[in-house]
Amino acid sequence: MASSIATKEELACLLTLQGDTNYALWFLRMRTFMKNKDLWGAINVEPGANPARTLKKQLNDAAAVISMKICDRLYPSLVTKENKDNGFLLWRKITTQYSRYTAHRFTRCTTAWDNLWFNGHMLDFLDGLDRCLTNFAAIGEARNSRDICGHIVAKL
């Protein structure tokens, strides 16, 4: 089913959703993949009560790809009878669950931000910085560029 839309090699390049820890990067890579496969419109716009046959195929293909890239631990809570063949419903469930702002997510982001230090390896520091900013963006928490610069200087 999904082999017609994605090869094993393409699927291997996509991250597997592990939860809050990698949602932001998983989302970005999955979005790029879905746009490349012309599935983004299918999962990002309400399909209506009776979608056309072509759209049903796209929804099914998208659901297959998305469900293959969810870890076993999360799968039962995310993939249900209602959304297993509907990429729009599955995508909405995942993004609603992991991209919304909660006090817990904000605390995790700020804790990671505060615990980021330069330990002699600039690439590791920049990777950590990028990860923190991506996680803030995933919950809709914008960081002021002056605050980012101040934080970087303070941590060096």
TrEMBL record:
This is DUF4219 domain-containing protein. It comes from Puccinia triticina (isolate 1-1 / race 1 (BBBD)). It comes from the Eukaryota. The lineage of its organism: Eukaryota, Fungi, Dikarya, Basidiomycota, Pucciniomycotina.
